[in-house]
Amino acid sequence: MFQPLPTRRLMALALTLTLGACATAQTTITPIPPANGASAPVAAPRPPVDPTAPKPFLDVIKGAREQPGLFPIWRKDEKVWLEIPKAAFNKPFLFSVNVANSLGERGLYASQMDDSHLVEWRRIGNQVQLVALNTAFRAEGDTKAMVEQSFSPSLITAGVVAAQDHPDRKSTLVDAGMFLYDIPGFSTELEVKFRLVYGPDRANSYFEATRAESQLTTLTARMHYATARIPAPPLVPPAVPIPSAPQTTPDARSFFFSFVYNFRALPETPAKVRHLDPRLGHFMTSYVDLSDDVKPGTRVHLLNRWRLEKKDPAAELSEPVQPIVYWLDKNIPKKYREAVTAGILEWNKAFEKIGFKNAIEARQQPDDADWDNMDAMHASVRWFTGADVGFAIGPRRVDPRTGEILDADIGMSDVFGRGARRFVRDDVSALRVMEAASSEQRLERVTRAWRGEAELCTYAAEAASELGFALDLLAAREGLDYDGPEAEAFAQAVVKDTVMHEIGHTLGLKHNFRASNSVSAQKLKDKAYTDVHGITNSVMDYTAYNIPLKGEAPTTLVNSTLGAYDYWAIEYAYKPLPQDQETAELARIAARSTEPELAYGDDVDQGIGGAYDGFDPRSNQFDLGDDTLAFAKKRLKLSQELWERLQTRKPEAGEDPMRSRRSLDSSFRQLARGVQAVSKYVGGLYAERVVPGITPKTPFRPVEPAQQREALKFITGSLFSPEAFRFKPEFLASQTLDYNEWGRGLPLSIPDVVLQLQGLALDRLLAPQTAHRLIEQPTYVPEAQRKGLISLGEVWGSLQGAIWSELKTGGEIDPLRRRLQRDHIRRLQQLLNRSLNGAAGFADAFAVARFHAVQLVASLKAAGARPGLSLETRAHIAESADLLDAMLKASVTKS
């Protein structure tokens, strides 16, 4: 808001202007002629001094220290300037942001890569702009100008020229303060996370580090974000819970981020491009090519890969001109560095197969190093932590022109090391099954997957949970010491496995969640095989641990090496090929996709939520072997073994009071993964990545009816049976709380977690997508082969019959079963909402749901009339009948 200046300040300003005008007038007065009468040359009038004109370059940077580089940096006290050579204007380079220090909660973590853009410096008068070029739409030839006019670039930041151009170098000086703003857009990110308005506080922000070299200039800005006040909570709890303010800072109104701004020169000679093939999983750089208005497909996908060239092109095995170097950050604990190095160098095996010796190097950043490998010139592996963190990430920086990978910074949350051995003791968690992602997160993952950027990787945390389960079971079965050498060897194996996975991402490989399904169950039992070949055909899978059943021979527990798919994917991306043979040779390599050990399925195939629910039961996280249903049954047996051992184990003095709870937690997470995988069989489709006219396979094929029925039987017979979840009352009553914590939790409730587990199955089996596939399944099968197909009516009828089986037997209804039945009625209510489900695409499903609901009402009324039932059972039956009656009447009224 404009505020008038106080009277005294106005008077002072007027006096200043008057004196300034007088001083200007004095400088333009003609000198008095000499007294001797001799004529003297008349001096030309000087132009008025422009108070806004830049000062001379050398005056502005007087006393400043120069850091020569791509864009030289000048520093004096708290002032920082960038010097931009004249030749650098209107010339593209790569601008990127990394987050070195962060908040430590809700996705705001340290050691993370943020956005990058192809940018140019542009000068408009005395203003310098940093402009992000629009690389999403491109064209050559006649249409280039039209496309450039049609799609706008974006302004990242701008500043006023700080001095006159350098007298010799003719370069421009700008105040680097133009970067002490919300360049990454974190104010919006913070509002999304906390629903509070935070903004950058420029007065308390500064540059904590600067660096410059020939191809790189780096500014590290310590940015203060603040809000004036935290609003009071509402008097009445809202319908949608409001996120709490930040919990990890001393004062929720104030915190700092460190943003590393990288200005990196692009390669003078662009790398050769290699195009994507959908039969393999590589990250990509995609754009719309509008050069030709005849081509029906305008999307172009460039495969992301490092520039790797042989020193001796004629040699069968040659070192590269420039190896891919990964720096181990000095913040990695020393005891894990050897395992990290082993995970990095394991990939050299794949590169040796295509003629490169020592293609990858691992180097250790010295502990006394004064440089940060978050810059854009050092690929790195870094540790980070947070209050609620549990993932690893392997993002890349690429040249948008070609897809060439220029930089990568792997961020490993400390759960990857800490949790690998001590998850069962140190990681505070409540008993839960797998958490469902919010719609916001699902949408983000769908968008990233479409763009080829599905980089978020929870493998580290999930692998820690896997090992927690394995250690718990082996400790109960064999007396394994959590702090002993065998447990430490497990931890090191998990570190190597996880690093191999993340290095694969930075080499350009996407997830392959179908790889483990291509190893037979018999091979998994053969230790001689698994020690050499591993337990999956790709380290890019999320691999379950190969735990034998009680009485079976021990085998390889953790994956330890690359799989067949990894060698194949590296060959396609990196094999040196003569230009005239490249197309044919790449087609030959990709054509191997029909080989069973090269099976591929990405994040979308596995399921990321919404419409992309994952309908191929062979693509899953944390399954193992070629029979997912058999694997799920095995995990149930292993969990039940652990439960049995926990209930007979005597607690030791001084042990963690939450130990048994955490063991139960890890076992139920195992079951949750199995339930999600098995339920995919029902209404499932086998999906194959087919290139029309080339791949001799059918893209989609319904799962065999017998497999669908077996999966349904497992769910209804095992998962819905209260007998599968019986625990001794003495055991449940003995589970204490952590009384040192304010949020200490509540007494252990097995019914709560069992209902969550059962809900995962019902989520899938009663979902609109599953109903749609079951209804349309016959259209994928020739008419002569349709006999015996499973129908929607059969699936929903079987579910209802299993859930309400007591209505036929006339027996009491167990409390666990009453919970399940109420959940079923709640879901029926959703299915019977005609306004939501009466559309043409769901009309058949609505009719089937209504038909079964009418039958259920009749069965409930008949069962309620039987004598001898407990009050709880009779009340439950009566309430269920009334609810269903009301739903059916409401659906008729609405229609």
UniProtKB/TrEMBL annotation:
Keyword Endoplasmic reticulum: no
Domain DUF5118: 54-100
Domain EcxA zinc-binding, first and last residues per copy: 486-808
A GO MF term: metallopeptidase activity
Keywords: Hydrolase, Metalloprotease, Protease, Signal
Record has Protease as a keyword: yes
Residues in the signal sequence: 1-25
Domain DUF5117: 115-311
Pfam families linked to this entry: DUF4953 (PF16313), DUF5117 (PF17148), DUF5118 (PF17162)
PANTHER family given in the database record: PEPTIDASE M1A AND M12B (PTHR38478), ZINC DEPENDENT METALLOPROTEASE DOMAIN LIPOPROTEIN (PTHR38478:SF1)
UniProt-recorded name of the protein: Zinc-dependent metalloprotease
Native source organism of the sequence: Roseateles paludis
Lineage: Bacteria, Pseudomonadati, Pseudomonadota, Betaproteobacteria, Burkholderiales
